[in-house]
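Worked example 3 (structure in, sequence out).
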């Protein structure tokens, strides 16, 4: 056609069309097969109205596949709920499909909220029946399959009840879950409430995806209210002195596995619960497990006051309901929920942390008093033991808000309704937990490092302020002698002020910890392993994430420790930054400080940490740049510079700190820290003690 001078465009278009038909033939065949399979399985995806029938075709083959598989899985789930053994095995085949939005929509749509509720109820009833008849093989199979199916159902339910997910089933689905949860159901001869069965789904959750705040606002909050409505008279009787004789313990509503004596058989391994617990679980405990998977969900559940109540959900759980949590002895779900809800750097997390601190301070205040020695004494052991299971989440909440401790002590401020005295009693509970005390000291260490990093560098003036990340107003603030330039004397004064300010919260933490150890009859002079590890790994030598190295000698001293990943920690909670710093040090496998081997007291350990942090600040800000470093083991090169800390031996590091003390002027700063740190009069005042004077590490 071209040689004949004819138009070739029609032929080119035909060739293009032929190519497209060839390449899409396989896809068209697959689509046709899917449509035929949908028809064969009688899967409908339209709706009938008085105006006629409307058919909504899937957008593509993947959507059609999701519709088909979701419908078949939903039918298998309904058959399994009716006790058909083969249906359970069929349902398991679809366990990996819960990440597909179209599958989840079709699955939950076919199953409905009634089926969602009936399926775990049927599984529990069948498992009880198998055990009752001594059929161990069937019981084992049901337990294994049940765990997989419940986890699958939980993942689907989390997606299908999240408005941000494409699988969202709508607000009516959530309301129907509440209706089914409050209703009574039956499987064989077993009668149960819907929430008892749904709870098995929540407890099987692995956190992916998390349950939404909308789920907690509609379903979660109703679960809390429903349990209280069902149990309030019994709980009131259990707290009455006379009623205690007859009413006994404050018993929560057990989930269906607990009610049928199945223990943890239907709970995936990672959700087994705490060692030493009774093996059962309550409906509300299972809800806690689901709610901890996201901060949004945790806030939606706890930061709420139900209609007609005079206490928030958090207050209710910490006071009115607390003995119901104690009844089963598994504190893990609630503690994890509290940590999730109170350790964020947002207003709601801070508000919940403050509320929890105040409530627990009020609850344990009466447990303490002044002993004959003038030290703290536990006057009411039962009152103290009652809340010790919450010591760790309380410590984590305070650690995430460690700046509030400084504000309370230094500025006489308040943290919500928490005053300094309240915080002192809360810390008496929080520091009684070893891991909690570790989190608090790590957080205050990070707080001090951040405070010292606000120190300006030597030589700051109006011409270089912007380049160094400061303003002209900063120059004026830091220039104490008014000569237009921030010199070493100015920085030394600023460092002194910050050092004294940071020593006071450290003093509060360590002295209250010492008093609690005394009150418990333990050795008050022991150094916790966590603090010894922090000293050994020289946590204090690291700069604050995002800090600029402006001192000449600081260049290269931190080596690969201050990486991009480390810088990204800026803005994280203090306890989270401290934990990441510790991990980073352990990855390098360095133990720089031999002093930890002789540290036998928490005070000595904290003073060593302070020395490390002050040395780092002085190095970073250029205070050490003009000091002679020739013939020092901790230096390298012909024009001596500080070795990277990861290359120093413990002896090198010890000599570095000694050099800072003697030649760099660090001794004065350390003495100021120690003098403030060892004054315990504030703890004496807030806890109404008369702390006796001691010697050495004890005072």
């Amino acid at each position: 056609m071209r040689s004949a001078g004819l138009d070739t465009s029609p032929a080119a278009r035909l060739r293009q069309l032929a190519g497209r038909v060839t390449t899409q033939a396989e896809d068209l065949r697959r689509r046709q097969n899917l449509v035929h399979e949908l028809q064969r399985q009688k899967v409908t995806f339209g709706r009938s109205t008085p105006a006629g029938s409307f058919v909504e075709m899937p957008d593509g083959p993947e959507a059609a596949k999701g519709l088909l598989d979701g419908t078949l899985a939903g039918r298998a789930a309904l058959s399994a709920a009716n006790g058909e053994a083969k249906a359970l095995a069929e349902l398991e085949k679809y366990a990996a499909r819960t990440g597909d939005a179209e599958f989840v929509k079709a699955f939950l749509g076919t199953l409905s909220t009634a089926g969602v509720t009936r399926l775990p109820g049927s599984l529990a009833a069948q498992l009880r029946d198998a055990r009752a008849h001594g059929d161990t093989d069937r019981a084992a199979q049901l337990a294994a399959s049940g765990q997989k199916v419940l986890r699958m159902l939980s993942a689907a339910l989390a997606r299908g009840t999240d408005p941000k997910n494409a699988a969202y089933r709508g607000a009516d689905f959530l309301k129907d879950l509440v209706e089914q949860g409050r209703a009574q159901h039956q499987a064989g001869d077993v009668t149960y409430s819907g929430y008892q069965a749904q709870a098995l789904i929540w407890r099987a959750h692995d956190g992916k995806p998390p349950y939404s705040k909308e789920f907690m606002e509609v379903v979660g909050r109703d679960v809390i209210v429903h349990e209280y409505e069902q149990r309030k008279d019994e709980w009131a009787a259990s707290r009455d002195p006379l009623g205690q004789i007859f009413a006994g313990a404050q018993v929560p509503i057990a989930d269906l596995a607990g009610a049928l004596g199945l223990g943890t058989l239907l709970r995936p391994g990672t959700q087994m619960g705490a060692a030493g617990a009774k093996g059962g679980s309550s409906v509300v405990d299972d809800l806690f497990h689901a709610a901890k998977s996201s901060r949004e969900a945790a806030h939606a559940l706890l930061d709420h006051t139900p209609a007609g109540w005079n206490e928030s959900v958090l207050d209710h759980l910490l006071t009115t309901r607390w003995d119901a949590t104690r009844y089963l002895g598994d504190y893990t779900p609630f503690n994890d929920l509290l940590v999730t809800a109170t350790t964020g750097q947002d207003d709601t997390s801070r508000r919940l942390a403050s509320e929890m601190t105040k409530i627990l301070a009020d609850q344990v205040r009466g447990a303490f008093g002044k002993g004959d020695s003038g030290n703290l004494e536990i006057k009411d052991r039962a009152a103290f033991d009652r809340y010790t299971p919450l010591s760790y989440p309380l410590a984590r909440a305070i650690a995430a808000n460690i700046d509030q401790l400084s504000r309370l002590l230094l500025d006489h401020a308040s943290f919500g309704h928490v005053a300094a005295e309240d915080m002192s009693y809360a810390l008496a509970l929080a520091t009684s937990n070893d891991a909690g005390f570790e989190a608090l000291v790590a957080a205050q260490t990070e707080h001090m490092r951040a405070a010292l990093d606000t120190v300006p560098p030597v030589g700051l003036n109006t011409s270089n302020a912007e380049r160094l990340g400061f303003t002209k107003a900063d120059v004026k603030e830091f220039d104490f002698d008014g000569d237009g330039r921030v010199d070493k004397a100015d920085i030394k004064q600023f460092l002194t002020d910050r050092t004294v300010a940071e020593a006071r919260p450290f003093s509060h933490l360590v002295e209250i910890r010492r008093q609690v150890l005394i009150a418990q009859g333990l050795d008050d002079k022991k150094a916790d392993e966590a603090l010894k590890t922090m000293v050994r790994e020289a946590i204090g030598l690291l700069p604050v994430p995002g800090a600029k190295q402006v001192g000449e000698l600081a260049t290269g001293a931190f080596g690969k420790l201050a990486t991009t990943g480390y810088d990204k920690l800026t803005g994280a909670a203090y306890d989270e930054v401290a934990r990441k710093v510790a991990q980073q040090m352990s990855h390098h496998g360095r133990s720089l400080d031999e002093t930890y081997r002789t540290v036998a007291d928490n005070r000595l350990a904290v003073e060593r940490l302070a020395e490390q942090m002050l040395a780092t600040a002085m190095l970073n800000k250029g205070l050490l740049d003009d000091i002679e470093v020739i013939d020092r083991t901790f230096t390298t090169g012909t024009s001596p510079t500080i070795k990277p800390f990861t290359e120093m031996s413990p002896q090198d590091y010890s000599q570095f700190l000694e050099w800072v003390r003697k030649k760099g002027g660090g001794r004065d700063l350390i003495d100021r820290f120690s003098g403030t740190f060892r004054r315990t009069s504030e703890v004496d005042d807030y806890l109404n003690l008369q702390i006796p004077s001691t010697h050495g590490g004890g005072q």
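Notes: The radius of gyration is 32 Å. Residues 359-687 form one domain.
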